[in-house]
Amino acid sequence: xxxxxxxxxxxxxxxxxxxxxxxxxPRINGYVQHGWNIGDGLAPGHPYAERTPSLLWSxxxxxxxxxxxxxxxxxxGAPFVYLLAMRxxxxxxxxxxxxxxxxxxxxxxxxxxxxxxxxxxxxRDTEPGPxxxxxxxxxxRMRRVRRLYENAGFRVICHGYRGHWWKDTDPQFxxxxxxxxxxxxxxxxxxxxxxxxxGIAAGCEPAVYGDPMVLADEDPTFGGTARIRRQWPQLHxxxxxxxxxxxIAHAELGTDHRHPPAxxxxxxxxxxxxxxxx
Amino acid sequence: MTTETASAVTLxxxxxxxxxxxTDSAGDxxxxxxxxxLVPAGARVLLAGPHGPALLDALAHARLTCLLRGYPDxxxxxxxxxxxxxxxxHGLPAGxxxxxxxxxxxxxxxxxVEGERLGxxxxxxxLVAAVRPGGDLLLRLDNPLGVHRLVAAGSWYAGRDDAEWTxxxxxxxxxxxxxxxxxxxxxxxGMRTGACYAAYPRPDLTTALLAVDELxxxxxxxxxxxxxxxxxxxxxxxxxxxxxxxxxxxxxxxxGRAADLAPSWLVLARRPAAEPTDPDDETHPLPGGEVPGHLxxxxxxxxxxxxxxxxxxxxxxxxxxxxxxxxxxxGTGAAPYASREVAHRDPAAPDGPVPxxxxxxxxxxxxCLRRDTALLRRxxxxxxxxxxxxxxxxxxxxxVALAGADxxxxxxxxxxxxxxxxxxxxxxxxxxxxxxxLWRFAADLLTGGYAHPWTSTLDVPGLTVVxxxxxxxxxxRAVVEAAMETEAAVAAxxxxxxxxxxxxxxxxxxTPTDPPPGPHSYQQLREAxxxxxxxxxxxxxxxxxxENLLTARExxxxxxxxxxxxxxxxxxxxxxxLAITPARMARRGARAAKRRARAAIASKQxxxx
Lengths: 278, 609
Fold this sequence. Notes:
The complex is a heterodimer. By secondary structure, chain A is of the alpha/beta class. Chain A contains 11 helices and 8 strands. In chain A, helix 1 packs across helix 3 and helix 8 crosses helix 10. The longest helix of chain A has 11 residues. The two termini of chain A are 16 Å apart. The mean pLDDT of chain A is 86. Chain B is an alpha/beta fold. In chain B, 41% of the residues lie in helices and 18% in strands. Chain B is elongated and about 125 Å long. Chains A and B meet through helix 2 and helix 11 of A and helix 11, helix 14 and helix 16 of B.
């Protein structure tokens, strides 16, 4: 299995949904898209075996992947959608309050250029209620960055470690994220990212504003932040038209493409599970 | 010179003593049924050229004269008809007129190698002269650009067969090459053209006659779609062709060109009555309403010589089926995988309405090609819900239980079985019915080489499960296996019922890299080869990737082992191990004590019992 399939506990969520239990998930016969992206659904720079299936979130991504030469691409929807199906919102959920704010992160090898203080001021001016700031794990470990947000009076959290090379993946990553999202009325970020779409799907009102904190070595192949703003202007701003956002999130997360457990087992190569399955 | 060799056989000259035109008695059913409708009792009928026994049987009520060039063919029909003329066209006595003249094999088969050649125009003139004023001519013309020609593996102009002592073709301007030219030629010969039928699937085999005006008008008709697909698949089974004739014919239907691409046409023309007020002139038969004398919009037979011919008539309530009396016999087939018969043909079913709508198979293929998963979801959920609504205690019986995507029509939200004559003998679980339809469609989709939205790693049962998911049903491979067993049993029962030479393929043997059963098409064989190559490329890349990964993981393991060894030899490890030795020994002792106690309790309990 490609190690990226384990990021954020995606393989664990899919295995749970497919009825294979909570243990170590069996190998997936393909690459599961591990985050919302504006390219072919695969992370640039990761090595892939040619013609191994790409299991993508949305039909739009599938078309794009095909157009850049990818084959054997199919849409299964985001793992988050499978999690939502397993954990419907409870009636007794406490009332939602405040905003969960995701400052854009790069991954471990990238360096974000931007001013956290400026961003904090913007958040304070904009958000009406209490703010929870969710940092990416490596920023959360950076005491300096964490303190900046804590000193601003924000609650600072981290959903967990996404894992790397099968190590230290937090299988509860998405569960924790979903639980946090459901505590908040709004979800916001300085970039349109997976978290915004997850938030919309989890019932939050979205907002995207502030300095997008461009990466020092951002890959311009698919147009970068400028293209994101051109293609999804409806999702940018301090206030966003909710029905439109819900519709877009529905399509981008591939909610309608969610397969039932038996079909998912076939698509992931789990029809005849290997030994390591629980 | 005239020589009598038998009471009914006349040889007026120009006969071919060793020649026979008939090689296959199949495919005359639709023509025979049509002719039976046209010919009143006692009418004088000329059958010009070779015709099969079905036509002779259908016209038993008429006075028949056969004009045949081959003597062996004459010997076969002698005694069954009033008169047999074994001759070329010149042998037809001048001045003799008939109520109906039928040239069901075209004009070429009338011309003999002996004597002066008349050519197509001369032959037509000769036959027209034999039609009485007010009488009818039923004429076949081969299409030089029909489906059969477009998929032919050999070129038409290289003809080397015995019958091709001359090769007639589209270059011969004296011969009509399309329907419009045929109408013009008939008009020029003084005939008024009436009904026209497109004859599929081959010029030498007609299992379907479809009215050309309706073909042009009803381009999305599920009935025409199903009939063309079945006729062209069965009609070319086992033959080597360039491309799938069924795909081409159905595409032509949707493009409004199924009549233009028909392998041959059957045209009915009337010679105007001498008196313009002759009432015969006013009731020229045309496909249409239920008025007596009006003709069906479709006549569909099978490959077997005795296959019943089903007619489709147009009426005030729309199209409806009509089967000739006695054809709706009950047949049964023994199934190798079931302890008893699984399917039969229901004699009470046929005369119902033909439901409107598009064929589910075509709609699903379209959805797959356009990757319109929303459409596929809507269609398959609609189908699964419809099955649920028909079920009693979760089981389906009758026609619904057997109808696959090639026998179901969809009109908006309305679903219907096209041909309800096939019935399941025992009710089947809804999931099994759904899975069987989806398995058959998945096999068609994969072996046919169609583009679709799913990965190449799915086998046919796997894709069936995925399609079940698209239909909103979560069944697994166990259900698909039950469906495949049902499919094997039904497939085994079908030839017994139809007598047709269907290709029986063990369902579990179908793999995505196989070409489809039926015609051996170059395109589909090549596509199957490309799929195999693609699969090999994928597996090779995967193997390389796995090898590299294994190397990396082995390296990581070696590093980890080295680290463990290093740590095991360190002073701190040794001191630590020494420190915990009493604890380890105590644990070991405790375990042993526990084991002994358990054994003692168990033996005590055993004694008490």
